Amino acid sequence: MLSTPPAQSAIPFSVLRSRPSVHASVSSKAKRLIDILGAIVGLAITALVAIPVIIATQLDDPGPILYGQVRCGYRGKHFRIWKFRSMVVGAEKLKHLVENEASGHIFKCENDPRITRIGRFLRRTSLDELPQFWNVLMGDMSLVGTRPPTPDEVANYSPRHWKRLDVKPGMTGEWQANGRSSITDFDQIVDMDIRYQHKWSLSYDIQLILKTIFVVLNRSGAY
């Protein structure tokens, strides 16, 4: 049974008061249609790789196959994101033992000891992200957008940081296609997310999707 995400935390009044009109990407029916079609194809691919992933995961580190985590989506709405598990069971409880190598309101560690052997392969090939096509199909995410932060990260956001949540979160986006995990400065990520909002168009989304496929196949900037 799927767990129900906790109630959404309150958005600061100063942020709500300064909110712009709905971003064109959020209201675009064409973008939503592309998301649905892409999610259906993506879930078919996910079904094909699920069995070998399940077998490899159970041989490497027995436990749940999927990992669910509460994230903040469009304008801070909480939802549960899904991935193939790439860390040891109970990894969240061990987070305080791992050094954060990023600056700002994100957490990254290149040689995170909690990542399993099969998990490292899944991350380098981005196969761990495939279950998120379900999130896209349900409408919590888009194929292209900004990466959804955790509630504890959002709790420390400034009004400027909140602007990155004015579009739906995406499986890929500006900074994933142009650096991935090699970008470790949060303010730089925010700059790229806001730039995406200014440059958005359906053709630009397709451009980022194609660029992401190239980056993933070359395993550039992933860990």
Structure write-up:
By secondary structure, the protein is mainly α. The protein has one domain (25-217). The chain has ten helices and four strands; from the N terminus they run αααββααβααβααα. It has a two-stranded antiparallel ribbon with strand order 1-2. The chain has a two-stranded parallel ribbon with strand order 3-4. Strand 1 (66-72) and strand 2 form a beta hairpin. Helix 3 packs antiparallel against helix 5 (132-138). The model is unreliable at 1-7 (pLDDT under 50).
- Overall pLDDT level: 87
Helix percentage range: 40-55%
Total tally of structural domains: 1
Strand order of the largest sheet: 1-2
H and E order: HHHEEHHEHHEHHH
Q: Kindly, what is the distance between the CA atoms of the first and last residues, rounded to a whole number of angstroms?
A: 30 Å
H/I helix tally:
10
DSSP summary, beta strand count? 4
**Strand content of the residues, in percent?**
5-15%
- Biggest sheet record: 2 strands, antiparallel
- The coarse silhouette is globular
Entry keywords:
single chain, 223 residues, mainly alpha, two-stranded antiparallel ribbon, 10 helices, globular, disordered N terminus
